[in-house]
Amino acid sequence: MSLLSVQNLTMGIHNHPVLRDVTFEVARGEVVAITGESGSGKSMTAFSVMGLAPDGSHATGRIMLDDTDLLTRTEAQMCALRGNAIGMVFQEPMTALNPVKTIGDQVAETILIHGAGTRAEAMQTAADTLTRVGLPQDRFPLGRFPHELSGGQRQRVVIAMAIALRPALLIADEPTTALDVTTQAQILKLLAKLAREDDMGLLMITHDLAVVSEMADRIVVMQHGEIVEQGDTAHLLRNMRHPYTKLLFEASSHQVDLPARKSDAPLLKVDHVSRDYRTPRKTVFGAPGTFRAVNDVSFEIKKGERVGLVGESGCGKSTLTRAILGLEDVQSGTITLNGAPVFSAGKANLAVRRNMQVVFQDPYGSFNPRHRVSRLITEPFYLLDNPPKGQARADLIAETLEAVGLSAADADKYPHQFSGGQRQRIAIARALIIRPEIIVFDEAVSALDVSVRAQILDLLADLCRQYELTYLFISHDLSVVRTVTDRVLVMQSGQIVEHGATEQVFSDPQHPYTQTLIAAAPSLPDLTDARDEAAS
Amino acid sequence: MPNLPAMLRYTLKRLLSLCISLAVASLVIFFVIEVAPGDPATFMLGINSQPDTIAALRTELGLDVPKWQRYLSWVGGLLTGDFGTSYTYRTPVAQMIADRLWVSLPLALYALTLSTAIAFPTGIYAAARRGKAGDTAVMGATQLGVAIPNFWFAMMLVLLFAINLRWFSAGGFVGWDKGLGAGLWSLTLPAISLALPQAAILSRVMRSALLDVLGEDFMRTARAKGLTRGQALWRHGLRNAMIPVLTIIGLQFSFLLAGAIIIEQVFYLPGLGRLVFQSISARDLIVVESVVMLLVFTVIMVNFAVDLAYALVDPRLRSRT
Fold first, then answer.
1. Contact A102 B225 (CB under 8 A)
2. What is the pLDDT of residues A160-177, one digit of tens each?
């Protein structure tokens, strides 16, 4: 008999349907992954099981945990189950812990709130559980505060809170989405190990199909609040029936067709660049310390070249980007575009600036919500001495919007009228409109759903054909970098540890760090062979 | 106390910055007031007085020595508790201030206690019932509390409790020699009129700070552990909401100590606000300087206390600075 059995779960929030007829099961010791894109209802399904769906929601159907229908439980009864019979781990470890309480108190609280021991016993269990999730007491005593831990360590604390009472079911909602690949690999391994050791059912919610296919025993695919397909992982991967499942997997391993480069002239030159930050004084009158975020970095980008920059958080990617864009000065070394320095005499060099544009990660936060698209995408005109006016301006706006796959009529709309993917197209249009020599894509596709991401990557390839783009593509997502770049730079602790032709670096990494990164990144199984096999 | 070394280092740093602030403040106060037009001696003797009489008075008051020398002797006096002698009343300033402080300080503390006692429960209640009738009622009441001037409250309170019900006297202060109870009793109406608008502001701050915290991820984590809404609010919400609330409490105390002038006027209380007002009108610069310095000192001390309270509430601040 299964541990969790969700039967015909239908849910609405204020009469707006969110889930329809959701039916699936999780057995003890089994890892079930619910996957789908944003708005598919996967997180809402998890919250319904926890009884933590938003106010104003109404659910029908049954959510059976062993013999108990959770939908018929009162709030008080649910409180007794949460943390005790069902544990939950969340996406954002940086904010999932109370910043003013020690990790020991927070783990012990799970035990105390359910009356499962005295305070001393609870603290002992907390210590044992923290050790179990990989935070041994000699290095991570109970008195530590969350801000003293890294993201991966905090996620371990959250996991410890969830499993302290050895629940029968653990729900993990995008548990590794906010983490670096090497940390992600460790956390996933930990979750799988805990589920196995405690014979716990693990319900994973994730958009990352590579994670799903590596971790899950069974996969549930959701779209628009409905389950479109589910089955054993191996079987489902070989026999995808629903077009949406196929689309998801294809989009996840989407390869673009980059045109060949034509020119070989050097464009951007980063020469022995170092960037220091001041750290707080240790004593009142002591000199402030320095932290070298970028350490003696040199590389070159040629005209028409597409270069990737990968590395984990804190490696100096963002600092380097800011220096290249001329937003900050550097402590030593030079950055030049066509031979002209990006930063001179204490400020950004305008002549260089107009030849560089940037596209950021967040398609929602990157626009002033009160401006129309025409005004938003013409912002870089401020950099020009003679910006186009009148008809020429209107024509350029129309041409650029069409180039990024929008229509000329979109110029009069506001950003809120567009989806995340469309907004990212607007951001690209804004970068493109003054025909810069180089565009920096700073995690530009990281916030997008896989199907939208695939379209944006295709758009980039199209633009390369049309405009011979040169770009620096910064991402933590190795599979994306692999397909849209010619050359890749791998950064660790402020230094470039490896660089070379993308395919070369990925298929035969030389530096141990690159090898670790590539090994840690979850990968999709090669499905082309599998499908051929199934067909024959 | 966990993290004592960090906490100690933080305290010492705050203390150093406190001393620097005080030194700068004393300089600014002294010189700003000195450059303000109006010679105390001329003012005291009248416009038609003889120059040699004025000169004699200036010597007597110690106004004829260089400014920096007067500054040093003033600061030296402040440090030893000698605030100088009032130009107009010819009594020690320290004594005058002490007398007034015995009224103003208890009044400010009384009002602050009342305002906190009203604001915390109402703010928490409103946040817990966001969007429901209770929340709307509390928010409506606080809107009124912010909008209505405190002297109007004061007059209404006098009308109701002093004139109609005769529970309190309409004004004046009986003095602490009549006993603590009697003293507090005579400060009750002024304290309430001072407290109500402050309570309204504090209650709104409390509510919005709590609502911000209620939306945090760690509140959801707490619920996932099995805490009820109420438990999550008390155990995880309140302390995280304290930073903005402490800031406002600090500002309110400073305001209550010096800004009660209208209420002191309405209730005829011999407080600091009236002393400042009278001294400014009389060009009694030394009293003005001393009172202003005292108020600045209080504000800085309160800020110091609030800074320490921040660090007690939030461990991140201990290591950051």
1. no
2. 999 999 999 999 998 888
Cβ separation A88–B224 shorter than 8 A: yes
| Residue A10 near residue A182 (C-beta atoms within 8 A) | no
pLDDT digits (tens, 9 = 90+) for A408-459: 999 999 988 888 888 889 999 999 898 898 999 998 888 888 888 888 899 8
Judging by DSSP bridges, how do beta strands A226-232 and A495-501 pair with one another? unpaired
Question: Chain A partners of B318 at a C-beta cutoff of 8 Å?
Answer: none
**A515, pLDDT greater than 90:** yes
Among residues B279, B306, B295, B309, which one has the least CA distance to residue B105?
A: B295
H/E run at residue B309: helix B285-313
CB pair distance less than 8 Å for A147 and B321: no
Give CA–CA dist A410/A403, Å, rounded. 13
Per CATH, the number for A4-252 is 3.40.50.300
The distance from CA A174 to its chain's CA centroid, rounded to whole angstroms, is: 10
Calculate how close chain B gets to A92, using CA atoms only, in Å: 8
Top residue of A47, A82, A100, A170 to mutate, by most chain B CBs within 10 Å, is A100
Domain boundaries, chain A: 4-252
**ipTM computed for the complex:** 0.81
- A340 strand-pairing partners: A337
CB contact under 8 Å between A83 and B225, yes or no, is: yes
Nearest-CB residue to B226 (from A79, A90, A101): A79
Contact A96/B320, CB-based, under 8 Å? no
pLDDT reading at B34 higher than 70:
yes
